[in-house]
Amino acid sequence: MNTAQFFDEELEEVKRKNGYRFLRTRDFNESGKSTHALLDGREVILFGGNDYLGLSHHPKVIEAAVESIREFGVGSQAAQLIHGHTRDHLELEKRIAEFKETEAAIVFPSGYQSNMAAISTLVGKGDLVVMDKLNHASLIDACRLSGAEFRIFPHKNYERLCEILATYPTSGKKLIVTDSVFSMDGDLADLKILAQIKEKYGALLLVDEAHAIGVFGRRGSGLVEEQKAQDKVDIQVGTLSKAIGCQGGFIAGSQKIIDYFINFARPFIFSTGIAPHLCRAAKVAIELIESEVKLREKLLWNTFEVRKELVNDLHLDVGPSQSPIIPIMIGESERALQFSKGLLEEGIFIPAIRPPAVSPGESRLRLTISASHSKEDFKKLLLAIEKVKTLTLPSPLLRERGRGEG
Ligand code: PLP
């Protein structure tokens, strides 16, 4: 086969389906705010990131990173099992374990890598892994990598999950995997029910807290805390790159499970450790999540207000979202792209999410809220959406009332 022709054809095909992707370049602007930037040279307000509390730009977080760089340099020099495990790694692990109320934790260069390590190490040939249809791609990829029998249940259809667990013949391990906040729909798993199911069928329960940390729970540690499931969840995975505002990921659980990962998780053993300054910055960010309750309250209030206006005033469908992830449901990819492009011209950036990130026919704008957004930012957002929606959406998509709360 002519490989150049193969690449051309594949790229043409993806363009034809409105699925073509390209990189935009972000530059900082004078404001110094995490939500304001230059995108390909254009001044925009960002409504598509996951820096829910604006901690990526918090002076204490930045200072912690700089202080660590002065001591340890910019990289960790080696895999953690060689000498890439610094005092910053150790202190972050202890802080995460305390925060997540587990015995121990280990850290990784990304959340994606944490998920790869967690699932591919826990289960393998002869085991069963069952997951929610709307789980993040990293969890799906990890299940495929594991070699375990891999089954999917329809979104939050826990009856179907029980049927799969009851009828699948295996003497091996059974693992249930769920996001706690679903990354594209912004709705929540029911961890109490999942905990009962895992007990009944003798399974392990793994929960990805990526979008729940900094948002839910009295101390802001996530949905496991909010739904009081600390004693029921066997493995919690998370990322340092969303509300924590840094970069990296972690697995938290019992000391025995963490020791097992240190000995058997190939993505941990064969990769250079996360940089020490990211660990020190993340530790300070976690402390801020716990202490700055007002920041978390502001995030939830902003989210509530924007969702209400989108549904009640702009008559948009925001799905079942219960978190700062508010999808504006569009349907066709082409329309979602047009909508996003129209908003960009108004100085508002919200990415168009298309297959394969969501199912065909479910393209959307994935709007995310941050505590760093100001009232003025929201005013500009809502004005721009009002202007662009009439140009891009057919009237049936402008609902009398959306499905979200009013
Ligand atoms: N898990 C979920 C639910 C996510 O949404 C993401 C990132 O988008 C990840 C894991 C991966 O985390 P990271 O971006 O740190 O690799």
Explain how this protein is built:
With 406 residues, the protein is α/β, with parallel strands linked by helices. It folds into two domains: 25-53 and 293-392, Aspartate Aminotransferase, domain 1; 59-291, 3-Layer(aba) Sandwich (Aspartate Aminotransferase, domain 2), CATH 3.40.640. Helix content is 43%, strand content 16%. It has 15 helices and 14 strands. The protein has helices spanning 3-16, 59-72, 80-84, 87-100, 111-122, 137-146, 158-167, 191-201, 223-226, 255-264, 266-269, 276-291, 293-313, 333-345, 375-392; strands spanning 26-28, 36-39, 42-46, 104-108, 128-132, 149-153, 174-179, 204-208, 235-239, 249-253, 325-331, 348-349, 352-353, 363-368. The strands form three sheets. A seven-stranded mixed beta sheet has the order 4-10-9-8-7-5-6, sandwiched between helices. Strands 1-2-3-12 form a four-stranded mixed beta sheet. A three-stranded antiparallel beta sheet has the order 11-14-13. A hairpin with a 2-residue loop joins strand 2 (36-39) and strand 3 (42-46). Helix 4 (87-100) packs parallel to helix 12 (276-291), helix 5 runs parallel beside helix 6 (137-146) and helix 14 crosses helix 15 (375-392). The longest helix has 21 residues, at 293-313. Residues 400-406 have low confidence and may be disordered. The structure holds pyridoxal-5'-phosphate. Residues 110-112, 115, 136, 138, 179, 183, 208, 210-211, 239, 241, 249 line the site of pyridoxal-5'-phosphate.
